[in-house]
Amino acid sequence: FTGASLTKTTGDNPVLVGFGATCAQSTLSNAIVYNIDVDGTLEMGTDGIVFRAAVANDNTDCSFVMMTSDLTAASHTFKLQWRTSASGTATTNCGSGEPCNFWVHEVTD
Question: How far apart are CA 98 and CA 59, in angstroms?
Fold first, then answer.
């Protein structure tokens, strides 16, 4: 998939970022790593959130929710990024009958 990007104007608050989909990895010893880019900075450093399938090329649930630190009151761009941890082919299933969700929600008092 492409274009997993959302822009939201927030106050001086954190936001919850969620993603829901299935994924697969062609090489069992490798993983799929997800991260959220907020205005050009990776929220989870270079480590990200790691998913490993129990069976090569088998779909596994790769859904997650994470919370950012407090943002400044402004417009922010949130981008979903993903990669394979090493060799092999990582697949995120979105479309062609596979549901996929990417959302952002500001946390306020």
Answer: 11
Residue 27 burial by CB count (10 A; 0-12/13-18/19+): exposed, middle or buried? Answer: middle
Residue-wise DSSP of 70-84? PPPSEEEEEEEEEEE
**Digit-coded pLDDT (tens) for 62-109:** 999 999 999 999 999 999 998 888 878 888 888 777 788 999 999 997
In this predicted model, which residue has the larger pLDDT, 24 or 65?
Answer: 65
Measured over the CA atoms of residue 60, residue 41, residue 38 and residue 70, the dihedral's sign is: positive
**Residue keyed to tokens 């990200």:** 48
Which three-class secondary structure string do you get for 4-45? Answer: CEEEEEECCCCEEEEEECEEEECCCCCCEEEEEEECCEECCC
17 neighbors 36 (Cβ within 8 angstroms)? yes
What pTM was computed for the model?
A: 0.88
